[in-house]
Amino acid sequence: AALLTACGSGTVGQTGSGGSQAGSAGSKKLALIPGVQAEPFYISLQCGAQAEAKKLGYELTTQAPQKFDAAMQTQLVNALGSNPPAALLIAPTDDTAMLAPIQQVKARGAKIVEVDTSLKDTSVAASSVSSDNASGGKLAAQTMAKLANGKSGSVLVLDTIAGTSTTAARAKGFEDELKNTPNLKSIGVQFTQNEPDQAASKVTAALSSTPDLIGVFATNLNTGEGAATGLRNAGKVGAVNLIGFDASPSEVEGLKNGQYQALIAQDPASIGTQGVQQAVAAVEGKPVTRNLTAELHSITKADMDANSQYFYKQSC
Ligand code: T6T
């Protein structure tokens, strides 16, 4: 695992098990464990969280796994030790496998706030802050229908890793809504292990097995980047509509040069800000809101200049 050093305002480093005041009454320490390191969505989330922690007089420490992987993330959770910070903000990389390690931190006295992804077991977190991912999928399907403009054809959905709550909800929201557009038919959801190469191969395979493919919905940043590569390799850029989720610098560049027809942008900074607010409320015994959402925005090339505030950051 490596440290996220992109956001300068807070302390970045290991919250060691050797322990200072962590976990004790009156502790002003928060830990953030995102889904993966050095990735614009989680960097933007961290930026929001760090600024809010500073404002509220708390110290936020961030550590992120090298890959979006439950075993790697478990090591970081376990490293919080027997004397954890007052609250842990975490994006669980698996809705089931992360249950036990998170429960252990909770049992040791830390408040738990889920940011972005969540566990299936809703009893663990004091609060969960995320995009309304099902609505994001629905928005993508409506955008796909608009782009098809009455033309008939098949559509491929690219998911990441089974057990990722966010992308699963996007894929389901998309498929449910697509049923309202009879001219478009989903050929199903394919997993890519969140690897761009796998996403590219799935697109290549779909293009040869499904000659009437007219759209791809990529449920996050890596699936989008891979899908764009697959379409580019086949000379199908623009002929097959690509809708991506997220708004990383490379996706925004792709929207500008016609590789994506639309992006569904999240507001990761707001997820971080709200997550810290809930964590601090839980620590201080103030009222906590169980579920909170951040806004989503469908962006096309035509309106991208007016929406540049939703583009993700590489550093704070
Ligand atoms: O789409 C985001 C995040 O919401 C999702 O849970 C995992 O993938 C991203 O981090 C983008 O890479």
Automatic annotation (TrEMBL):
Main localization of the protein described in the UniProt heading: other
Limits of the Periplasmic binding protein domain: 31-286
Alphabetical list of Pfam families matching this protein: Peripla_BP_4 (PF13407)
InterPro entries noted in UniProt: Peripla_BP_I (IPR028082), SBP_2_dom (IPR025997)
Keyword Signal carried by entry: yes
Key words of the record: Signal
CC annotations in GO: cell envelope
Superkingdom of origin: Bacteria
Gene Ontology molecular function, alphabetical: carbohydrate binding
Family label: Belongs to the bacterial solute-binding protein 2 family.
Protein name, as recorded: ABC transporter substrate-binding protein
